[in-house]
Specification:
The protein is α+β, with helices and mostly antiparallel strands and 257 residues long. Helices cover 31% and strands 30% of the residues. It folds into two domains: 5-137, 2-Layer Sandwich (Fructose-1,6-Bisphosphatase, Chain A, domain 1); 150-256, D-Maltodextrin-Binding Protein, domain 2 (3-Layer(aba) Sandwich), CATH 3.40.190.80.
Length: 257
């Protein structure tokens, strides 16, 4: 099925109405994970409520999986996967590299998705028509770079600290092979792969709501996104996105050691 851009814009606007007034407002932050720090804010919870309401009204037979409010009708062929604020740590730090992620899977395959960054006024989305951008500079079709060599590639990861044990050693060797490595930015880095500004993102330990929305955006822009082992990315895990098939293969081999 196809999802109209008008509906994606409605979702983006509804989420922004909850997130933007709370951004840089010094609001309360709760911790969801004892012994660690997994922050959640009122903006996360209220934005997801707004998104779920729109989806339920338009597609009452579809299921929903959200980071903050759980799952409903999960046996449906059509499942919407929501992360109201991907990059909550950036959000509470006042950095505009968080985004609202909403994706749709049909029989487990990601077919449509959007990433909205309302502070910068940007919307990245993919549906049956391809991958597209709306924001400063005007609308355009998204296309990945044609980079095929690690030596010419720009790599992003949230932080190398997420790689544990031998995986950290392999990551460090991998990073030494690329032209430029940068850290942070969560979903924004994946969007930049689709936009042709970043070549590789390698992020371990992602959840489905961290990545489902980004899969069709990257794929329809010409990129490749899988687990580190080459499997489907829809269920999360250790995720690798690259601008071209050749670069993806080289990055996957480097991460395997």
């Amino acid at each position: 099925m196809d999802i109209s851009i008008d509906f994606m814009r409605r979702i983006a606007h509804a989420a922004a109405a909850e997130t933007l007034p709370r951004f840089r407002s010094q609001g309360a932050v709760a911790n969801k994970e004892q012994g660690s720090f997994d922050p959640v804010t009122e903006a996360d919870r209220e934005a997801e409520r707004a998104i779920r309401a729109l989806i339920s009204a338009k597609y009452p037979d579809h299921g929903i999986l959200g980071e903050e409010h759980g799952s409903e009708n999960i046996s449906s062929r059509h499942i919407w996967v929501i992360d109201p604020i991907d990059g909550t740590r950036a959000f509470i730090s006042g950095l505009p590299v968080w985004g609202t992620l909403v994706g749709l899977t049909v029989d487990g395959d990601a077919v449509a998705g959007m990433m909205s960054q309302p502070f910068t006024g940007e919307l990245f989305y993919a549906n049956a028509s391809g991958a597209h951008y709306e924001g400063p500079g005007g609308p355009r079709r998204l296309t990945t770079r044609k980079t095929t060599s690690l030596a010419e590639a720009t790599l992003f990861t949230t932080t190398p600290a997420l790689f544990k044990g031998d995986a950290r050693l392999r990551y460090d060797l991998f990073e030494q092979q690329v032209q430029l490595a940068r850290y942070g930015t969560d979903c924004y880095a994946f969007a930049m792969v689709a936009a042709g500004s970043v070549d590789i993102v390698a992020d371990p330990g992602l959840k489905p709501y961290d990545i489902v929305a980004l899969i069709p955006i990257i794929e329809k822009a010409g990129g490749v996104i899988t687990t580190f082992e080459g499997g489907p990315a829809e269920k999360g895990g250790d995720i690798l996105a690259a601008a071209t098939p050749e670069l993806h293969a080289a990055a996957m081999a480097a991460l395997r050691g």
